[in-house]
């Protein structure tokens, strides 16, 4: 029993190591990725040129944000970033849907995307013990989380940003590959989905077929 207490103390004091993505997560995430592969058609072609929507500054969640957080928090658990990813993109999808009239040609696509996102979120929650989601978050992550969950009318004007629906879903897709990379492993050489240069090489065509 003493050894169990010691082990528990070490677990609480030591930085949490990255845990592999549960295999059960990969099916809903790949289904989500299939939907995201059509985002250019629905999020660019069906909107006016230079169309943007207002989102919270933390909802513009890019690969660079992930890199910065990893530098700021030593030993940052990947699970913490995955939790934040779901929180961010929940808000992103709601805001995109909110600006679409009922008969907008991209509304059925976006509604289906949100359903698939929620399916993935449900699997994510059930893939981990409940206590994982009750653990205290690192300060920088908690600050971001608190800002994201503020009532909109209490958010200062300085924290709002304008972004195109397409760019928001690009961020959605790229950060998903980064944080759940095991689900998108290539048969070729190992790919660094967290690298901005990867997505600039045009290799995204292999992952994001247009139809």
Automatic annotation (TrEMBL):
Give the residues annotated as coiled coil.
none
Q: Which residues cross the membrane?
A: none
The protein's UniProt keywords, in alphabetical order, are: Signal
Q: Which InterPro entries match?
A: IL-34, IL-34_sf
An annotated GO cellular component of this protein is: extracellular space
Q: Signal peptide span per the entry? A: 1-18
Q: State the superkingdom.
A: Eukaryota
List the source organism: Dicentrarchus labrax (European seabass)
GO terms for biological process, alphabetical: positive regulation of cell population proliferation; positive regulation of macrophage differentiation; positive regulation of monocyte differentiation
Q: GO terms for molecular function, please?
A: macrophage colony-stimulating factor receptor binding
What protein is this chain from?
Answer: Interleukin 34
